Amino acid sequence: MGKQRVADRLPLAVAGVLAVGLPVAFLTVFFLAPTANLVGRGFFAGDGSLDLSGFVEILGRPRTWRVVWQTLWMAGVATFFSVALSVPAAWILYRTKFAGRALLRGIVAVPFVLPSVVVGVAFRSLFVEGGPLGSWGLDGTHTAIIIGMVFFNYSIGVRTIGNMWVRLDPRTEEAAAALGASPARVFFTVTLPRLMPAFASAAAVIFLFCATSFGLVLILGGVRTQTVETEIYFLTTALLDLRSASVLSVVQLAVIALALWLGSLARGAGASTQKMRTDLAPRPLRRADLPALAGTLIPVAVLLIAPMLALLWRSLHRSGQFTLANYADLFNPGATRFLQTSVMRSALSSIEIAVIATITAAVIGTLVAVVITRRPKSRVGRGSLRVLDTLFMLPLGVSAVTVGFGFLITLNRPPLDLRGSFWLIPMAQAMVAIPIVVRVMMPVLASIDPRQREVATVLGASPLRTIFTVEAPYALRSLAIGAAFAFSMSLGEFGATSFLARPANPTLPVAIYRLISTPGSVEQGMALAASVVLAALAGSVMAFVEARADTAWKD
Questions:
Q1: Cα dist. 214→104, 123, 229 in Å?
Q2: CA 263/CA 245 separation, integer angstroms
């Protein structure tokens, strides 16, 4: 009998070791080692001795502080407007119901996965001389960059605040209204304080994305605007000054960690006192909701729809004439001397890389999600799972530029020399996407009633069979959603890929950046058309997610 029990437990033990060991090995090779190597270049000299002179030198430069300050204030302003503008939409799209709500939610959600180069090209087509808003003088300005950042992050604020608002017990507001408080006073004195954890969570994530924005700043800001991200890129690719780039990367990591820590404190301070409900259904739209509806439709029309329509319209023109030549040239490898292959070949390459990155992220992310949703009885076991969870969330707090830079200086020698390897870019993109897969699957797996597992065990199912028969049906839907997010993010990833892509075979975002950086009308038109193609690919994936993920994705 004892031998039989050991035999039954052996497959589970082996599976447990693989479920933990494989993701940890992947994280170590493709994230922890490159990041540690990058950080080490700022603290240690070539002979391995501690040397902080690089920090003294780099932090003593006035340019460094100008770049850091420019990064912080632009991210702060963009965060404020992203959160403020999202409040009416969070109410309208999550607490009320009306015809067209699903379509409106889909439109609001699309920017979350649009590639940064597409957004940069779209707004540049608005602000450039000859564009619809060219007379406003916004081309290459800080204002243009901030508007682009708000476009990107508006949907994060709407989703994060809306997901909490829809679960707030309304009886507190009803009691305040019954005591004579006006709707405005109820909102500012009762509702708003209760929503502060959601505001803090949204602000922390949005600030992170704004502070690490790369492609957007590169395209909209040009050479006149430098952030920490673009400065790291410039130091690495133009000056080959890896030490200075490493120091700036360490500074960026510290700023991001501080922002996430402050956001976590703010969330924890208010979340513990909230009474949350899951049985609240959206109510029909009322006359009193019309101001909030207007506050939703206007930003959606002006901020989200108009730039994409302008991008589509300008992609159908060249030198002021309506034409399909921009799209035809995407298939022609000789259309421009600035690319060594056709744009559509780059698109196919991007899809191939994204598929591999998605499969990798789905496998690793599923293993991590299954492991960290276990419920061990020992304190050591629970603590170990928290550490594992934190480790796999670290890539969310590290910019893609830092990841790509780390790959560049680490995976270039034995025993893992991937210089020139096809697999370098898919692994970098997978590392960026894994936290998203984990975060999509975790709530679903954690919500499974443990009594279902107990029943399966009583009926004689082994632990592994219990996982496949009880948990797998729940996990498959969330896995599909997570994989869709991973695919879309990988398809448009630009930060890490800009370091790693080979000139002869660029990905579609890299090809778009090369084209938009060239002043010729042919290259500009091709960049616009290629951006429409990339937006359509990413947007179709987002449409699938929104159609099936209304309840599965929780920020």
A1: 28, 15, 6
A2: 27
Does residue 11 register a pLDDT over 80?
no
Burial class (CB in 10 A: 0-12, 13-18, 19+), 384: middle
Structure tokens at 25: 């090995």
Please provide the size of the chain in residues: 555
**Nearest CA among 95, 123, 102, 121 for reference residue 543:** 102
Q: Is the dihedral of CA 352, 354, 357, 362 positive or negative?
A: negative
Core vs surface per residue 332-349: b (16+ CB within 10 A) or e = eeebbeebeebbbbbbeb
Q: What is the spatial distance between Cα 452 and Cα 548, in angstroms, rounded to a whole number?
A: 25
33 phi, psi to nearest 5 deg: -65, -50
pLDDT at 498 over 70: yes
- Would you tell me how many other CB atoms lie within 10 Å of the CB of residue 425? 29
pLDDT in tens, 102-134: 788 878 877 877 788 888 888 888 888 777 787
Helix (H) / strand (E) containing 477:
helix 472-492
Q: Concatenate the DSSP letters of all residues of 209-268 into one string.
A: HHHT--HHHHHHHTTT---HHHHHHHHHHTS--HHHHHHHHHHHHHHHHHHHHHHHHHHH
pTM for this model (two decimals)? 0.78
- Give the integer Cα–Cα distance in Å for 360 and 353: 11
Give the whole-angstrom CA distance, residue 429 versus residue 496.
8
Alpha helices in 60-191 (DSSP H): 62-95, 101-109, 116-127, 142-165, 171-178, 183-186
d(CA 77, CA 298): 20
Residues 6+ apart with CB under 8 A from 524: 515, 516, 518
SS3 100: coil
The C-alpha atoms of residue 274 and residue 532 are separated, in whole angstroms, by 43
Is the peptide bond prior to 415 cis by the omega test (within 30 degrees of 0)? yes
